[in-house]
Amino acid sequence: MNSLFLQLVLWTWFFSGSIGFYLPGVAPHEYQKGDIVNVKVNSIKSTDTAIPYDYYSLMVCRPEGVTGKVKAEAENLGEILWGDSIKPSRYNLKMLEDVTCQKVCSTKPKPDNVDKKTGVSKTLKKFKRRIDDGYRGHMILDNLPISEVYIWEGSERGLYYRRGYPLGTPGNKTHPTLVNNHLTFTVKYHKPEGLPGWRIVGFEVVPYSVLSERVDKDCKPENDFDAEKFPPQPLRLIPKDEATKYITWSYSVRWIEDKDVAWSSRWDHYLHSSDASAANIHWFAIVNSLLVVLCLSGMVAMILLRALHKDFNRYNNPDNEDEAQEETGWKVVHRDVFREPPHSSLLAVYVGTGSQLLGMAFITQLFALLGFLSPARRGWLMTSMLVLYSLMGSLGGFTTAILAKMFHEQSWQTILLTGVWLPGKVFVVFFSLNLMLWFNGAASAVPFTTLMGLIALWFLVSIPLVFFGGAIGYKRSIVTHPQDVSPIPRIIPQPKWHMHPILLVMCGGTVPFGAAFIELYFILSSLWLNKFYYVFGFFAIVFVILVVTCAEISIVLTYFQLCYEDYRWWWRSFLCSGSTGLYLFLYSIYYFSTSMNMYRVASIVLYFSYMGVISYLVFIVCGTIGFLSCFVFVRYVYSSLKVE
């Protein structure tokens, strides 16, 4: 096992690409006055569609000398899956040199891309659609994302940073659509003590719409260019004589020294620019969850220390002559409690898959807490999760093999099912959505080479490791039960209404979900509203609380079930805590109706498909926690029971 752990560490380091050198504050870059600082562009994104597009899919200025497709810089797997396509741009700034106005280029709609019936330019029509859908342009300077800055009374610092800038202003019946063709950059820098040069600590923008004719006339270095004084640039499609003939793009630059912000804290503006009460909400969620844990812990302690202790004294007392007491309660099912459940091999596969996901989650959170997966390292969170899930295949195969051998279902087909059951389902959904994204020309559409890389990671890394873990598990001695199993199943009494299996399963997921649902709002906002999620400390605490609540609620419900002489606890212990995934999906519906503004069919399908996959993963993880906890609990209880 030591060699396996060493192999895991080495593989993780290899795939992560020496991640320590990319930590914020580790490798700052000092610029000298006059140095060229290149602005890079990212995909355009909108929270109303959740479908990113290439920046150069619009009628904008392309890099000099590039006529075909603009190639992206080196991307990791996570960037490709998220649609973060970082490419060079025509915006090249010079360190500490202010620019009143600099013309970039003029772009014209393609004359051959016109609807012959209406005379509408398809190029301009697509541009107008992106503006109407609320798309925002995203740029990067020295690894800092561009943001608009607003004064907001609800913010602790009085400022609110919103990533990107709007491509334009949507029009209506009385006003045409406007294009933001002039960008006023504000770059903040810091002078480190004892070091030559300056470091960039902020990148802000104010977009303007300026009539292209005035840009051509007045955008000169010697002129005091005030974008607010000029009429805006409309985006007219019809009639033909009023169509937008061309758009001139320009920018201004202002450099400001910020002595209060050092390199190591330059991301604080972006991460802490939300409502000041957000931290209080996080703490409220933690306190709320801790109260739930304390209540459940009290119930479990009462069961273990009082009820079970009392039962042990009654059942294990040889002087007890009251035979009637021997025929009630959880003791009477001691010959059936370890009876193999139906579809036991499938249960082993689910628990093995859940163990694989749990191993991936714990190590990913450890990396996040250490700072390896900060927002500055785009795409590495997704990359690490995929790689770690593949490497955790040995844990999944080992767990499946142990359970399958205990259920007398020892076969390599079960191990193979562990390697393909969850990834196969997720891949079918992912491939179907990828076809839809490819048809829509989205930047997040995974290319064929990356798709083959994912399949290779699955079949060449994950599945072999699953078989490796399964081989180790099958070589281990079989897990023996503390009580023998009767050859004839015991008749299960008719359950009362409050002990109905469906009711227990539905009630089991409410407690873990209630302990974590407040944090879900921030997680979903980072996924769908283009916000940063950085509070990994809070997330780690909530995750631990989720694990504890899943374990405790499953133990409590299993104990009550056994007290009513129902020994079918195997699947129910999995489903009771696993139903948390169902509540997560229901909450995603509520979140969609209250916080999202999606109306296109493709966006709605994308949202609910991915939320369905996430809810299914939560179902497996929480179910595995509940099953393993109940397995330990039941073995402890019946191993302490003395029977003749």
Folded structure, characterized:
The protein is elongated. Helix 8 runs antiparallel to helix 10 and helix 13 packs across helix 16. The protein has 18 helices and 14 strands. Mean pLDDT is 84; it is low at 1-26. It has 644 residues and is of the alpha+beta class. Helices cover 49% and strands 12% of the residues. The chain starts with a helix and ends in a 5-residue tail after the last helix. A hairpin with a 7-residue loop joins strand 7 and strand 8. The protein has a domain at 30-271. A four-stranded antiparallel beta sheet has the order 2-1-5-6, with no helix packed on it.
Brief overview:
With 644 residues, the protein is an alpha+beta fold. It contains 18 helices and 14 strands. Helix 8 packs across helix 9 and helix 8 packs antiparallel against helix 10.
Index terms:
644 residues; alpha+beta; four-stranded antiparallel β-sheet; four-stranded mixed β-sheet; 18 helices; disordered N terminus
Structural class: alpha+beta
Total E-strand runs: 14
Mean pLDDT: 84
β-strand amount: 5-15%
- How are the strands of the largest sheet arranged? 2-1-5-6
Shape: elongated
Roughly how many Å apart are the termini? 40 Å
Specify the number of helices: 18
Report Rg: 30 Å
**Quaternary status:** single chain
SSE order and pairing:
Elements: H1 2-16, E1 36-41, H2 77-82, E2 87-94, E3 99-107, H3 122-132, E4 136-137, E5 139-141, E6 144-145, E7 147-151, E8 159-163, E9 165-166, E10 168-169, E11 178-179, E12 182-190, E13 199-208, H4 212-218, E14 247-257, H5 268-271, H6 277-315, H7 323-326, H8 344-369, H9 380-391, H10 393-406, H11 412-439, H12 448-475, H13 501-508, H14 510-528, H15 536-563, H16 570-578, H17 580-595, H18 601-639
Parallel strand pairs: 12-14
Antiparallel strand pairs: 1-2, 1-5, 3-14, 4-9, 5-6, 7-8, 10-11, 12-13
Helix pairs in contact: 1-9, 6-14, 6-15, 8-9, 8-10, 8-11, 8-18, 9-12, 10-11, 10-12, 11-12, 11-18, 13-16, 14-15, 14-17, 15-16, 15-18, 16-18, 17-18
